[in-house]
Amino acid sequence: MATYAQPIGEQQSVVKRSPELNSPQTKLIIGALIVTMALAIFLLVTQHIVQPLLLIIGVGLGYTLFHARFGFTSAFRRLASVGNGQSLRAHMLMLAVACALFAPILATGFAFFGGEASGLVSPVGVSLLVGAFLFGIGMQLGGGCASGTLYAVGGGRSVMFITLLFFIIGTTIGAAHFDFWVEDMPSAEPFSLATSTGLGYGGALIVSLAIFGLIAWLTKVIERKKNPPKEAEKPSASGWKRILRGSWPLFAAAIVLAVLNALTLLTSESPWGVTYAFTLWGSQVADSLGFDVASWGFWQGDEAALEASIFADTTTVLNFGVILGAFLASAAGGLFKFTKIKPGNAAASVIGGLLMGYGARLAFGCNIGAYFSGIASFSAHGYIWGIMALGGTFLALYLRPLFGLSVPKSKDSFC
Q1: Where are the domains of the chain?
Q2: Membrane-crossing residues (predicted)?
Q3: Cβ contacts of residue 10 below 8 Å, gap of 6+?
Q4: 304: Cβ contacts below 8 Å, ≥ 6 apart
């Protein structure tokens, strides 16, 4: 954070300002807009109207994630390492708004294009416990969660390309092992706070808001005991330019992300997810290499997706949108550049990507599909995912130094 001093008589008045952004990277912005428009037209011509709409929503998600540096990985790490709960409180606001928006949608099943909207409610079992724990370790080694990997790639963080590649490989291996973990291991039926309890969506919303309030209060208690350092200032524009160039307050981004997730539900009939697309990409490659992918338990009943274009997949389109949105946001702030890769970071990214991919497939999703969208769908598995991922985070704090990674004191920019 820059500090400027102005003399007034014999005294000085200290004015604190956020670090300033660089000039907008105009050529990159124009290029990204052209690519986005071309892809939207291609989707409109070759796919359903839903796909270009989801691309625009994805751009909004990526733009928001980058401008706020909205972290899931960093939120867990900051709480576990130094007791800083600011980012986790932003999570609670995001979840509260999302639940309030999801409740009437799920209660009525209303969707924009005549289908029936449904949430992501998944089983609770050994696969969830193991998968979420592995994901928690992986995201701390890999340097980002599922959404964080995408927007870091869009922002030019070079090592995250390695994380993304091995994320895809890990989730493909997880799909191959799906029967063992999901079918053979003990598991309970999916449990919804709304439909499995008799509370209905109104009652489930009240219970959910109480839980979020309790968690936010607990983070305050932890902070009073640990007195953690505050998060570092991010480069920021001033006035109305801040909307386009960043940075955004965490709590503003939390609301925007919740609204965009609700729009995703209304548009695609399912909430925001990320890792299904990774599994699809990896499985199609594996299929082309001669693996009998159609026989894997994960693809039973969904074999047609393996034969279809990836552009027919809603999560794929959203993922492309997130990358493009983050690229636009970084270029608007004059921040896009490829970064150097250190050997330790590369090794951590390989292991972290594999663990995240494998864990996400076992746990029925990642920080988005299981944690964010799962909890917003009133699924118990979303809460358990968060607890187990936090447990993996605690273990990862001891593993990070082995790869030359610091255990930060809330100074990370990327999640």
Answers
A1: 72-148+156-230+249-311+339-403
A2: 28-47, 53-72, 93-114, 126-152, 159-178, 198-222, 243-266, 317-336, 348-372, 378-399
A3: none
A4: none
Residue 46: burial class (beta carbons within 10 Å; 0-12, 13-18, 19+): exposed
Burial class (CB in 10 A: 0-12, 13-18, 19+), 194: buried
- pTM value is 0.93
Question: How far, in Å, CA of 179 to CA of 353, rounded?
Answer: 22
Looking at the chain, how many residues does it have? Answer: 415
pLDDT digits (tens, 9 = 90+) for 226-266: 988 877 778 888 889 999 998 999 999 999 999 999 999 99
Residue 158 in contact with residue 415, Cβ under 8 Å?
no
Alpha helices in 143-274 (DSSP H): 146-154, 159-176, 178, 200-226, 241-245, 250-268
Label residue 391 exposed, middle or buried (CB < 10 Å: 0-12, 13-18, 19+): middle
* 55, 40 Cβ separation under 8 angstroms: yes
The secondary structure of 333-367 as a DSSP string is: TT--------HHHHHHHHHHHHHHHHHHHHTTS-I
Interatomic CA distance for residues 122 and 191, integer angstroms: 7
Q: How far is CA 204 from CA 59, 104, 201, 387, 388, in A?
A: 31, 11, 5, 20, 22
Q: Are strands 11-17 and 2-8 parallel, antiparallel or unpaired?
A: antiparallel
Residue 125 · residue 364 · CB < 8 Å: no
Separation CA 100–CA 80 (nearest Å): 28
Residue-wise pLDDT tens digits, 9-29:
333 333 345 577 889 999 999
